[in-house]
Amino acid sequence: MGKSNKQKSNRSSHHPYTKPPKSDPRQAKTASAIPQQRPKKLQHTNPTIPFTPDDRILLVGEGDFSFAHSLYTHHGCNSLIATCYDSASQVADKYPQSTAHIQELESAAREDEDVDIRIVYGVDGTKLGKGGSNGGGGKEVRKGGFDRVVFNFPHVGGRTKDVNRQVRHNQELLVNFFKAATLLLAPAGTIVVTIFEGEPYSLWNIRDLARHVGLKVGRSFKFQSEAYPGYKHARTLGNIEGGGGWKGEDRDARTYIFEIKDEGPTQAQLTQQKEMKNESSDSDEDD
């Protein structure tokens, strides 16, 4: 028995027992609390540009003409008629930055015979193509044959603070614009409209408005303002003193490409065509 105890004691002295170090529960908790982050997938979305250098383009409702300037300067669009609702003096007063854009566009048209760019003031987007001093844009607009008729961010302005009335006013604007623009399209031409996303713009139901006047949505896509270098959203009422915190080009917006339905023009369109033809013959001398 004594020998056995001695051997046991020797084994214990040769291999002393060492307790493992205690783990710090705070460290374990901290480690488990750190989520495993997966590498983010970079999204490279190439912007959709619905214009080509060969297109004949009518721009409606320009503000400071920065969009027209970008189309010419960065996208090679040489055949442009850029129109605005305001007079020349009103544009200069509301958008002082417009002067440089207009001067460069008009200078390019004078110096290069391949550049056909015109600036037309006092054009009502609901009366496109009408003759005389009715806001239709004169002979050049009435001649039609446009591959693209473009209206960026249509809005009637602050007529009322009542949302329902504001929606109705803008719906009327779009319907009348669609009717007028349809008659100016070249074969296979399209109407391009960009509006902000979300309310109250979604309440306009732009797809339904177009369908009722013989149009359909060919496609739609996110509007990316960075695809048009130099472009700045111009408010209907003009620049805000000090710049303001509101920048339209930073808001989510969507572009709709409208095509004429295959079943041909509606009766309303045929009637409008007849009226425009009569006005054209009666008022050519006024343009």
What does this structure look like?
The protein is globular and about 45 Å long. The longest helix has 20 residues, at 163-182. The chain is built from nine helices and seven strands; from the N terminus they run ααβαβααβαβαβαββα. By secondary structure, it is an alpha/beta fold. It has a seven-stranded mixed beta sheet with strand order 3-2-1-4-5-7-6, with helices on both faces.
Put the structure in a nutshell.
With 287 residues, the chain is α/β, with parallel strands linked by helices. 36% of the residues lie in helices and 17% in strands. Strands 3-2-1-4-5-7-6 form a 7-stranded mixed β-sheet, sandwiched between helices.
> How helix-rich are the residues, as a percent range?
25-40%
State Rg: 32 Å
What is the N-to-C order of secondary-structure elements (H for helix, E for strand)?
HHEHEHHEHEHEHEEH
Largest sheet: 7 strands, mixed
Q: Can you list the strand order of the major beta sheet? A: 3-2-1-4-5-7-6
Got a strand count?
7
Distance between the termini: 130 Å
Low-confidence stretches: 1-14, 28-35, 283-287
Structural class: alpha/beta
- % residues in beta strands: 15-25%
Mean pLDDT: 82
Helices and strands in order, then pairings?
Blueprint: H1 2-14, H2 25-33, E1 56-60, H3 66-75, E2 79-83, H4 88-94, H5 98-111, E3 116-120, H6 138-142, E4 146-152, H7 163-182, E5 185-196, H8 206-212, E6 215-222, E7 253-260, H9 267-283
Parallel strand pairs: 1-2, 1-4, 2-3, 4-5
Antiparallel strand pairs: 5-7, 6-7
Helix pairs in contact: 3-5, 7-8
Annotation keywords:
single chain; 287 residues; 7-stranded mixed beta sheet; 9 helices; globular; disordered N terminus
